[in-house]
Amino acid sequence: MLENYFPIFVFVLIGIVFGVAPVITGTLVAPRRPNEEKLSPYECGFDAFEDARMKFDVRYYLISILFILFDLEVAFLVPWATIFKEIAQTDSVRWFGFIEMLVFLAILLVGYVYAWARGALDWE
Question: Is residue 63 part of a domain?
Fold first, then answer.
């Protein structure tokens, strides 16, 4: 029974080797020349001007959430479109499948119009 798991074990072992080997090689081979700039907490080489906890504009997050929402819309539309021929050939679900997708698109359209009317898509 354990021989069935041997390919999985080999796959996991190869994955671990490919993940750990570059880290170990970099640690052993890379030159170590520390200086004050490299050891500073800022990448750019000079101290930060402002506090790291500065406020971000909420519209950035709103745009990203809207992008995710409409990206998920595509994730639901593509499978439906791929089986649309099968839906259209079956008499019992022909109109149900079509109307169901129209309702889905109508709900998304209402959300899109609402976001547009509220100014969520305006970037100034």
Answer: yes
Cβ neighbours of 75 (radius 10 Å): 8
Taking the C-alpha atoms of residue 24 and residue 27, their distance in angstroms, rounded to an integer, is: 5
> Does residue 103 lie within any of the structural domains?
yes
Tally the domains of the chain.
1
What pTM was estimated for this model as a whole?
Answer: 0.49
Which residues are CB-contacts of 28 (< 8 A; sequence separation ≥ 6)?
none
84 assigned to some structural domain:
yes
Q: Note the pLDDT tens digit of each residue in 67-89.
A: 888 888 888 888 888 888 888 88
Q: What pLDDT was estimated at residue 28? A: 93
Distance between CA 50 and CA 107 in Å, rounded? 43
- Strand, coil or helix: what is 47? coil
Q: Is residue 101 part of a domain?
A: yes
Instruction: Return all residues near 97 (Cβ < 8 A) that are at least 6 apart.
Output: 80, 84, 87, 88
